[in-house]
Amino acid sequence: KQRPGARVRAVLWAVAPVLSPADAMKLALALAQLCASAAMVTAVEQRAQMSAMANPIRKVVNMLQAMQKKVQEEGDKAEELFKTYMCYCKTNRGNLAQSIEAAEAKVPELTAEIEAAEGKLAQLKEDVRKHQADREAARSAMAEATALREKEKAAFDKELADDKANLAALEKAVAALEKGMAGFLQTSSASTLAALVKSGRYLEDGDRQDMLSFLAGEYAPASGEITGILKQMRDEMLKDQQDMIAAEEAAVKEHESLMAAKKKEVAALSKSIEEKLSRTAEVSVRIAAMKNDVEDTAEGLE
Hints:
mainly alpha
């Protein structure tokens, strides 16, 4: 291939005879510049061609460098994982030994706790049974005491009514006799008085016999003798009535006190039963949990 300088010289030789020296100089300068530009273009093209030829090699080099870097990173990561694994093995070997030792000690401890809890559970159940029996006994005592009180109250009411009727008859008899004994023996008051005298509750034997003879019309007493006996009976009857009322009031208070004490006892027993039933449930759940723990621990040791 002809170089650019050679072509320029050929042109100059061809046109030199027809040009003046000045024009020939100018043409030579222009052609020299043109040759320089062509040379520069040629150099650039050569470098581009060389660069294009070098690119595939550079790509391979770059790829190999990237692969080397990746292999190095993976190797570093594998080494780090290996170190971590070895550390884990060393650490957990000791931890495993400790865990086994703790598990072997845990089983008998849990077994002892279960036995103690089962004993406590049995005692709680027995306490609940006894408290329930005591509460039932207290309620039965309350029912019996109430029935007895009702019976005593009925007897008191009847006796008080009878006493009031007898006192009323006695008062009528005293009033009638004080006015005069004529016709008294035919009254209902005389019949009531005869029944009261026969009971013998308020008179001595002699006075009772005199009264019965008088009421039967077989005896005519001295003035004022019969009324004196009747007034004595009235005083005795009033005293007995007051004692009977006082006894009833005392019985009422005793019953109320008994009922209050029994109600308090029932309430306390009910509260204790409720608390111990709750504790029974808690202990039962705890025993079940401990038994499961023992089974799990035993399985872990197998």
